[in-house]
## 1
Amino acid sequence: MRHLIMTTTAALALGAITASAEEVRVYNWSDYIDEALLEKFETETGLDLIYDVFDSNEVLETKMLAGGSGYDVVVPSGTFLQRQITAGAFQKLDMDKLPNHANMWDVVSSRTEQYDPDNAYSINYMWGTTGIGANVGKVKELLGEDAPLDSLELVLNPENMQKLGDCGVHFLDAPAEMIPMVLKYIGEDPDSHDPEVIAKAEPILMAIRPYIQKFHSSEYINGLANGDICVAVGWSGDILQARDRAAEADNGVEIVYNAAKEGAQMWFDQMAIPVDAPNPDGAHVFLNFIMDAQNMAAASNYVYYANGNKASQEYLVEDVIGDPAIYPDAATLDNLFTTTPYPAKVQRVVTRLWTKIKSGT
Amino acid sequence: MRRFALIALPYAWLLALFLVPFIIVLKISLSDIDLAIPPYTPTLDVSEGWAGIKAFFRALDFENFVFLTTDDLYWKAYISSLKIAFIATLLTLLVGYPIAYGMANAPDHWRPTLMMLVILPFWTSFLIRVYSWMGILSTEGYLNQFLLSLGLISEPLTILNTPTAVYIGIVYTYLPFMILPIYSALERMDGSLLEAAEDLGCSRLKAFWLITIPLSKTGIIAGCFLVFIPTIGEFVIPSLLGGSQTLMIGKVLWEEFFNNRDWPVAGAVAVVLLLILIIPIVLFQRNEQKQRELEG
């Protein structure tokens, strides 16, 4: 009996070792890649790819800070990446193993440097803006032909929200993006870390709160596409996916996405390798594969988000590269703002304010 | 020796599965938030020897517990959770008792089947069952379609994302935990006692009240504890079925842990929750024991 147990244990241990040498475990956002690419990666490299998904930076960050996540590649957004680098959660990239790094686009790299100096720990996967998606027909029916579809007035002015409320309005459940948006609307610095300035967002949000049907970070894609809701404050690519689903379904729903003309937040999702990744070599192989111009273009063509890869641009379809909602022109680009991570004390103020907005307590 | 093993086993069980995790949570609740892996300080550094252990204990303090008193959010969430758990337990008892009673009085050859039917839902994932309720209760859901087609209502009811949906979810999920202990208490009951009561001129209702209920008391208490305790800390049901206005301590804990990344405050919230639960239970048991001694 004991002999049997020993043999089994030995076999299991051996299995674990050989398996981890051939496996790459990737943890990415949901609905964020062309799945054909995952198969292509396995055929090209002979590595087994284990691909899991999440839908909030907070969940990822908790896994990273707890340590031992078991993932080789993860995809935090800029501000979260910066904080996790400070916590020592990632390892520096070995550029010798990433020949495709030459494909990256300086316009994006120079912006991601504020989160990851010299881009030593991460590569850009995709980037986008946080803005307003609207069901054109219904909003115009309720607010008239000159409805401010491209302005924060649409979602932050109680008069407009009162009329839109019954039709369904969703906001992202992401305080680190919603509060900067409100601050921008009232002319404050969207990246303010001053609790007194942040508190100024409260009355604005409390006034429109009764008309917000739900705070959620992914349901709005289906909601907009089916015509269940009229307006969503959400992420560019998600709303554009909703627009295309509605067009495909041919259900008479027309969705439009606008980065607010007052200024919209620009964010970056960065691929990085955890410090305790079981297979860092495999992780580098994956990053290099993603930075291949054609692979990156395939991913962007599929999910309607812009990427930080210059060389991929010649393979992008016109629908993507030619759409100013995805690749904004220079003037719009100037109007976008970025934010930096909140320190723990300020984070607490922000979360508390958000709880108050959501629960009324 | 054998006797020692018999006593040691349950204590070892308690130690490993209750005390050790509790001490870990308590330790985190006395620490301070830090940007590191893990995200709190101090962590015990055994390599420093005795000095390291001393430094570790000196750095622990109760400021996170003091912090909980500075914001009324926590107290409101505790009270609201207690209230929801209390009402939900009562509802579960009202639904569960008749089922258990029916099972205990069913013909012998039916009982295994009925028992099976109570346990059967556990074969499906809890999460999937709660998700199904979203499909049933939503505005366009099966329940509304059914009621509309019967002509009982003219406008769809808003149930999903309200406290009503939370109660439905809790009663549904925890019903077997209420039924099983009550059933086992009722099943052991001696039926001749009821006959005797009726012979002595008791009405059936009065006999039920004076004999059946007191004899199933242990089952009722066990069932209520099994429902009440997990319901207080419930997170999944209110977050899927309840709206954002349903304030529960499980949700507050989640926010402390994930949004604020403040493991120490999350730890403090959990320790207070445990105290709120344990102290009344210990007092209750003491009281029970005293009564038994008095009766004995």
## 2
Amino acid sequence: MFNNLIFIILFMLGFYALIMKTNLIKNVIGLNLMEAAVFFWVIAFSDIGGEVAIHKMGEEVTKFNDPVPQALTLTGIVIGASTAALLLTLIIELNKFSGTIDRDQLEGLND
Amino acid sequence: MDIRILLLILVPLGTAFLIPFIDLINAKLRRFFVLLGILLESYLIISIIINNFQQLKNGEFFLQYYLGGWHPPLGITLAMDALSLVFAVITALSLFLIVIYSIGYIGHHEGKYYVLYFLIAAASMGAILTADMFNIYVFIEMLTITSGALIGFKRTQEASAAAIKYLIYNVLAGLLFFLGVLIIYFNLGTLNMADISQNFASLESGIQLFISAIFLTAILIKMGIFPFLFWLPKSYDTAPSPVTAVLSGVLSKVYIYIFIRIFWTVIGFETLEALNLNVLLLDLALLSSFFGHVFALQSNNIKRLLGYSSIGHIGMITAVIMLNTEAGFYGGLLHIISHMFMKAGLFVACGYLLQYTRSHAYRDFKGVGIRNRSVFIAFIALLLSMIGMPPLLGFASKWYVLMAFLEARSYFGAFIVIFGSLTAVIYYLRYIAKGFEEVKLTEDDLKEEIYSRPLLSVLYREKIVSFITYAYTAIIVGFGLGFRFFDLPLRMSIESLMNVERYIELVLGG
């Protein structure tokens, strides 16, 4: 329950930054915040309070945390980082031409 | 186990990673390797068809490959049935034609361009061939990142702005897709598409609705259907012409394939019907088609106009597929093929013709037809095919779409098809008339033109570019006369699409 609450708060905060802020870098931060919320929720949801899923010889552990969501989240983090890098590169490029990163003052972004 | 399915993904991926090293050694070798990669890809596809021709005829065609030797549902499976084969063939053919066009068109930063291009080729092949939900997500994100970089490839203010807009919309869609995949995993404990499909009906209807809605939103953003279409025209406008041809000819079709795969094979159309989502989606798609054509009417920019027309056509295809009848699939798949060639051909021809003009605007289109008559006639043939003139491929596919709508008694859909054709007559004929207008050029104008259009100053590049334009026109005219050629592959793919139990059995049992 607590996990879901934090997920919703983080996700909505990110969505607010994406929609309401006019600064493009803040929009990217909002996008990353939403991604972070989803990743956090996935990891918290898959945690059932068990051991790390590494099987040691001669040792019997009955309760494992599922490693698949963790692996998938790792992939998601990598993809999120690369999209954020690409977006920031493009924003720098845009800043070189127009001298501003404000969404409302830029021509050609809002049509 | 057929290693060629894996090679279909690995060959373009390998080419993409090889090109920077080739550049370090000798940049002149680059084009040789580009051609080698794309020819190898075509050879693989053709050999798959020839070796399995008998199975294809009998409707038993199915190939798969287990990555790392892990059998499903544990490992990742690559599976190819008749539907995937049809999409793989047309994607490979488009990629082949456009890469040759790019050799003539892309003047500078060629190395970077080909790396991104082959990554798109690998990702679209992967998204078509995989039978694993998370793999689809990874390939979709690969498509998003590479195509975003290619949209900003011109490095102007407009291109960067368009790429930022494109990326923000599509990253959001990718995030929703990720959430959907993970919710499926938490509920069913599997990522294999056949396994999910087997157990999906046992979920509670609330969770079913949630998962379907998340996937629907993600894929509608990617395809550019009505409430989320605003990124599309701008990115089509500012990207270089071969990139636009890839965006409309390959990417949007791959997303339609993913849409069909997820909503027929994985989630199942019965589930959609039980949740009443199919009616909503049909209306959204038709509305999207309507708005696409209406926006196209007021557009004063040729590439943006073609983008809006793409929205109209993709909406129409989605709507006719959503009817879930055999005639609907037949018309939809045929229109996917014909739209793929028509739109890519139009952007290819635009890339040539817009070299003569200062901007993409309507007023600058003046006199283009007189400057190069033969390419402009090819352009007109492609436009007429978009409208739906009888001997061309566009007529055949639109006819089947219209018949499917009438058969299902969806009269609003039939109205949209005819409305689309009629508005298309208005907004295309305007450009044809403008192209034949007389224009007077002074010496200075001609000098300036030679500087501003490096493409036409080199003879072999002009030859390549115009040759690909003619090739697209030849495809449209040839298959327009012989569209019965598509009868067998389409029937096979509809059969394998409708028969979900067989797909599950083959993936899990083989």
## 3
Amino acid sequence: MGSVLKIILQRLALGFLTLLIVSVVIFTAVNLLPGDFAQSILGQGATPEAVASIRADLGLDQPPVTRYFQWLGGALQGDLGTSFAQANFASFTGTDSGATTVAQQIAPRFQNTMFLAMVTAAIAVPFAITLGILAALYRNTVFDRATNIFTLTSISSPEFFLAYILILFLAVLNPIFPSLSNIFEGMPFSERLEKSMLPALTLTLVVTAHMMRMTRAAIINLLASPYIEMARLKGLSPMRVIVKHALPNALAPIINVIALNLAYLITGVVVVEVVFVYPGIGQLFVDSVKIRDIPIVQACCLIFATAFILLNLTADIMSILSNPRLRHPK
Amino acid sequence: MILWIVATLLGMGALAWGFRFAGQAATSNGPKFRDMPFGVAYGYVLGTGILLWLIWAYTQGRSADTAIANKFFFLRIAIEGFILFSIAAWLFRILGRSVGTVWSKKMFRSMPLTASFGIMTILIYAFLAIFAGVIAPYGQEEVILGAAANIVPGGDPALGGDPDFYFGTDQIGRDILSRLIYGAQNTVGIAFATTLLAFFLGGTLGFLAATLGGWLDQLLSRLVDVLMAIPSLIFALLLMTIASVWAPQLGIPLTVFMVLIIAVIDSTRVYRLARAVGQSIVVMDYIEAAKLRGEGLGYLVFKEILPNATAPLLAEFGLRFCFVFLTIAALSFLGVGIQPPLADWGTMVRDLGGFVNFAQFAPLAATAPLLAAGAIALLTVAVNFVVDWMLHKSSGLKE
Amino acid sequence: MTEEPLLKMRGVKLEGRSDEKWNPIINGVDLTLARGEVLGLIGESGAGKSTLGLAAMGYTRDGVRISDGSVEFDGIDLLKASAAVKRELLGKRIAYVAQSAAASFNPAHKLMDQHCEGPVQHGVMGRAESEQDGIELYRKLRLPNPEQIGFRYPHQVSGGQLQRCMTAMAMSCRPDLIIFDEPTTALDVTTQIEVLASIRDIVEQFNTAAIYITHDLAVVAQMADRIKVLLKGDEVETADTRTMLSAPTQEYTKSLWAVRSFERPLKPAVLTSAVPVVSVQNVDASYGIVPVLHDVSFDMYEGRTVAVVGESGSGKSTAARCITGLLPPKMGQILVDGQVMPADYRKRSKDQLRQVQMIYQMADTALNPRMSIGQIIARPVEFYLGLKGAEKRKKVDALLEQIELEPTEYYNRLPSELSGGQKQRIGIARALAAEPKFIICDEVTSALDQLVAEGILRLLARLQDQLSLSYMFITHDLATVKAIADEVVVMKDGRVVEQGPKQEMFQPPHHPYTDLLLSSVPEMDPDWLTNLLEERGVDNIGDAAVGKM
């Protein structure tokens, strides 16, 4: 067990190192911006004193390295800084509204996005894995070819195309689900589920296609291995061959596929949230990009990257854990 | 509702059992039906059921009752389109088998219908992109004088169309057909250029890393690892935010920045592949033989490695193109990609998206955004079909 | 043979799918096997032996089908039987032993779990009984530590032992028939012998019928009662083993036996005053920090062949890498014509590089698949000799003629359009094009079928006589050594164990390892294994013997 633990600790360390470097990259990228945030917030007519006070408020007068560590330290404690748009608004009206920090703005939306991702995963994972295994078992049949064409098409289509198609058929022509996902806090679960259904289905279509193809490839690869042939030649029933001989070895690739595709969800979520006006982190991100609200853009980026790295890390560790060669060293 | 679904599934199960039993009886217990698992029989029944439903839906789409016809309008169009494209692809394959060089004829002979559909579609897009200026009836930015805004596609005045603008006009009175055609030039052209750039960057560095190894390989690979740890669309959006501030200050169009940003982000994937392919070739004995002969780096890369890497790289080019194309479309859709007034499919979908909600009463109006989105999907589907076939072929040859 | 045969195959035709159509693999072969009989199935690669072996179980791999004929096992027609009936036979009455034991055991389960699966699932024995029986079988197969070995995972057990565990697994239900599909091909000679002996013993003990598939004539001579020879999907000849060996009737079968007869005349001893063409002096080398060569020294003289022999991992290929400069030695030096060569090939001059050429084991990876034969051979001609245009073409044509390939026919072909033997010839021509003094031949014949291999050996011998070339011949096959070597260097674990002229090396007294290596190479005599086992004693074979040294 010792060597496995060592490998896993190594991977974890590497993952956190990557995360650290990624945070540097994001911070540096943002600091490539020309001019001064304070200036751009207040506009051309601002007095130098006002600009200086805003600069001090936002900590912009510090050197970049100090600011990076302040930002990082804050981020670790859940403090992601102050939204420019909100700061602007607050200084403009002279009032201090409740939601000025980035964290306060992001938190509810983050929950919404997590909800959407979980609903999607709950539908997509079992569906895709079953479909993938079926396609692998009945490969080169009509069923396999039809699913191949179907999945290729849905991978190739932009998310918004799939979204509009679903809106067309499931919201407009057959009003089963609402086409706008106006979700708010305190909404009952069933209603929330109903409103998130279309975005979740859109994401399901995209993710299922990827996941199914990868599962199929992994299973076919596995079924071609000599020990499966051996199991068949031992006269075992097809069920036993699959459950006892294929499944334990298929676990690692399948977990890998799931983690990779959940990571893929992160990208898909941005576009889909915009189409359905779903109040998640993706939509916030796009809105902030448009109005150049740097602290929010920065924070969202960090959150997305963290999720992405963590999922990949999970996949990595899971596949190490399910490898008998590593679990039972010589 | 749920009861209905369960009943249908059970009913189909019974049908499947009956089907298998009948098959066994009819073939006097032949191996095909005797060893058929129940799941397969179920699959046959399910497939037949879906097929029958589609036929029924198609007849509904042709119904005289407008309410019903409207409801099944899109399904009808989809089925007609599917059949039309299948026939066209089939004809195209026959054409390819009889015209052209020996090599191309041979290629078409073993080609599945999906791949011939893909090649045909790519050729059509290329033609549209190159000759957009000649084909398009109006300019892409031209707000046509005297034409109303938001003319419904279809060209039927009774339904709010105009025969002069068969695909209708957009919200400020530009011809949608012309913008679609110019979109081929802009969207596809920009995506193509970006992919080329990404390949040039990633390919060169990848092969260098594979051939030279050592610290250069380590440095580049770690850098790529970090860049790939950030989801590409998110990273692109972040950099586009920054670029959108720089662009006006430097007087360089934002689109140029977009091409550079996406090319750099995407070159990391190309780098990975080129390095892996390069490494698998570098360990070959013929490379060792060339090294021991005393050959220089240039000869090694251009004469020995590159010619052997073309097949996987070509397939990757197709996949990367799709990816870049979809990323650009997504950026444009989100409003930070290709900038107006250039005609672009992603932007068109965003601008016309609201019309989807009219589908129940005026199905034609809803087609406008779907046309632009469909144009994107069609091309990526086509490229993917061709790539799928290429990969299948090259993996089949190895066995 | 009055009783009904155990297995009866009649007119079996097999087809494989490639390029969107079905191509024949086996064109109508008959096969009859009595109870307790061992039939050897031999043929070159691509003869369809394995496919036929699987067809005897009524099984085909993906992309293969039985298009005609019948397979009858103990009166049951396997091709018409239902899947359930076949499952009942497989494992219980017909078992299979695959070529690669490492790949054929499921990495996720312990050996014993896999061993007991068959008996328990088929209802032959209970788990505890089957486990006890497994230990008994392991003991019979002379596996070390039979009580515990079954409770390890496949990757924790060595290749030769794993192969025996698989034989035990095949035996677990006491089947009537076992198909052995090249069970020892992936093993070293000293390990092979142990597996052969235990397989033969256990098959005899339980009176199990077997089909033994291999390409190695000497191996099949030890194992089989009868031999069936296949060539490109057709049966050539079937006969009793002794009859087959002493009096083959078909031309092809005769030619198979003739391979072993090629041997070069002995050359006079080297003059003590002669300067070696290449001299390896006290070389130590390592990959990273793992040492692979220890104080290796040997000389190679003009017009002579030095065979470097040893099992996998003995360091023979590493020695070649040191000579070429791909792996600079940690200590010691390489001399060519008495001149010290720079250790790293990148520091050697063009002329120094030219003098040492190499021919590779796998002709497939040694030739650039995107270059024509003409381009491949022309490159060194142009690079080293500076020839251009018509002169270059003339030289390439001359080289092609030298390797017995028609220049006009082959000049523009791609490597993929050539057979394995032809590709190897192109590799030779490329080496010759540099006009070297010394050529390293790294297992050049081991990937080739025997007849083709012999052609290559004859060609190399002729070229040596014509051009006074000096060869370093790396091989693990002692038959090849006998055929072509003048001097022999035996290596083990990165050290030279023994070296000297061939006639001395093949005559006792030897170093014990040389002795073991030499005596482990199967001979065409059907009594060889029996005699050897008697000579060595049961506990002194294979790994056990190596371990005692």
